[in-house]
Amino acid sequence: MTKPSRPTLADIRKAWPATVPVTQAANALGCSRSHLHNLINRGEAPVKTLPLGRRHVVVTADLIRLLSGEPPATAQEQGAA
After folding, report:
1. DSSP class of 4
2. What is d(CA 64, CA 17) in angstroms, rounded to the nearest whole number?
3. Strand partners of residue 21
4. Percent of the chain's residues with pLDDT above 70
5. What secondary structure letter does DSSP report for 76?
6. How far apart are the first and last CA of the chain?
7. For the chain, which ranges sit under pLDDT 70?
8. What is the CA radius of gyration of the chain?
9. Phi and psi dihedrals of 53, rounded to 5?
10. What is the rounded distance in angstroms from the CA atom of residue 31 to the CA atom of residue 39?
């Protein structure tokens, strides 16, 4: 079985929806699905995730921010009061 190729930042910006599965985000980050799940479960994920039932999805805008080298969003930018 072949591993899917890593998407480019341009691919992600152009075609990805607002949220993506952990597997897809892990591929873009160059890590395994299980590693990203472990980071999420410990609250140490480098990207914003949202719980969706028993699973999580990754916010694509935050993934783009990380991959493009931009600084993390502030609490105000994330909508916190």
Report:
1. P
2. 12
3. 57
4. 84
5. T
6. 47
7. 1-3, 73-81
8. 13
9. 70, -125
10. 11
Burial of 5-24, coded b for 16+ CB within 10 Å and e otherwise, reads eebeeeebeeebeebbebeb
Report pTM. 0.83
Torsion of CA 65, 16, 52, 32, to 10 degrees: -70
Residue that the structure tokens 């929806």 belong to: 17
Please state, in angstroms and rounded to a whole number, the distance separating the CA atoms of residues 80 and 11. Answer: 30
DSSP letters, 8-75, are PHHHHHHH--SEEEHHHHHHHHTS-HHHHHHHHHTT--SS-EEEETTEEEEEHHHHHHHHTTPPPPPT
Q: Which tokens in the block code for residue 34? A: 């299980």
Q: What are phi and psi of 31, to 5 degrees?
A: -125, 175
Q: Are 19 and 57 in contact (CB under 8 A)?
A: yes
